[in-house]
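Consider the tokenized backbone below.
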């Protein structure tokens, strides 16, 4: 490799892991980018920039101004806007782009999953499956459930969720990883009868699904948005490093 400047779009554990691995490569310089949503983010190793780029055009300029040789989009599987921006900006600048996405969770025979396309669909389904819901969808889109008057919600997020919130609720601020035993106790303690989750994948937050399976609690699972057409993708940090090695001469 020869002096390769790589932009890692971050905000995930995989992005931090990737930045650490790339920092050990002699001819690679990495800049990690965070959206700036979380006041106290876990920072990746090395150079970090924070804040939006100003859409696809802004990112296009940023790639040119900073002589970026490759982009690895290691954002969360549900961060669809930045992934779309990255695809456009990479196409305009002819900078190679890889999307690093951890594999989705897969349903088990013992699970009772109800798969929906989006959070609106999850909100419609929730009162048909339970009265005490565990909402583990992050903090940004809780408003989709705000009109549900007949359901009590345990809302877990890293930082306080945005308004409007459902009327009957308790907010629990916590950051994973979570254990199966802890999740079983949480579901039991709050008498949860339905879990709402995005199919984020990964080990840090999978314990809630194991707990739901053990307790026979149904799960409303929101599917991931599709990747932009024609974009290369990888499932692991090792694959991403191999891709970079192949694309940086
Ligand atoms: P999003 O809807 O795709 O992004 C919204 C806007 O935020 C983007 O258009 C972009 O602004 C900016 N942005 C997003 N990620 C960025 C990054 N890594 N660096 C610089 N700007 C970024 O994403 P989101 O769902 O709001 O998620 C925001 C961040 O939180 C992502 O980095 C993601 O990895 C992380 N995250 C998201 C979730 C989730 O469930 N969505 C969960 C865990 C972590 P401009 O258009 O101005 O460039």
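A designed sequence for it:
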């Amino acid at each position: 490799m020869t002096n390769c400047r790589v932009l890692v779009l971050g905000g995930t554990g995989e992005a931090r892991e990737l930045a650490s691995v790339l920092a050990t490569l002699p001819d690679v310089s990495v800049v990690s980018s965070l959206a700036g949503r979380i006041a106290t983010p876990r920072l990746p190793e090395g150079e970090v920039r924070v804040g939006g780029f100003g859409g696809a055009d802004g990112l296009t300029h940023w790639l040119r101004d900073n002589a970026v040789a490759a982009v690895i989009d290691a954002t969360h599987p549900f961060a669809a806007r930045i992934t779309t921006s990255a695809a456009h900006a990479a196409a305009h600048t002819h900078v190679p782009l890889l999307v690093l996405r951890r594999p989705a969770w897969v349903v088990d025979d013992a699970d009772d999953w109800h798969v929906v396309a989006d959070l609106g669909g999850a909100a419609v389904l929730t009162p048909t499956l339970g009265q005490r819901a565990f909402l583990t969808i992050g903090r940004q889109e809780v408003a989709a459930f705000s009109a549900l008057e007949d359901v009590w919600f345990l809302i877990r997020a890293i930082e306080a969720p945005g308004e409007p919130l459902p009327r009957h609720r308790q907010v629990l601020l916590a950051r994973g990883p979570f254990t199966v035993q802890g999740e079983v106790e949480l579901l039991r303690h709050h008498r949860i009868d339905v879990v709402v989750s995005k199919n984020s994948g990964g080990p840090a937050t999978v314990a809630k699904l194991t707990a739901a399976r053990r307790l026979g609690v149904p799960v409303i699972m929101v599917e991931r948005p599709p990747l932009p057409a024609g974009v290369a993708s990888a499932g692991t940090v090792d694959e991403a490093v191999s891709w970079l090695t192949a694309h940086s001469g």
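Residues 9-12, 33-35, 37, 52-55, 58-59, 75-76, 78-82, 85, 138, 140, 198 surround NAP (CB under 6 Å).
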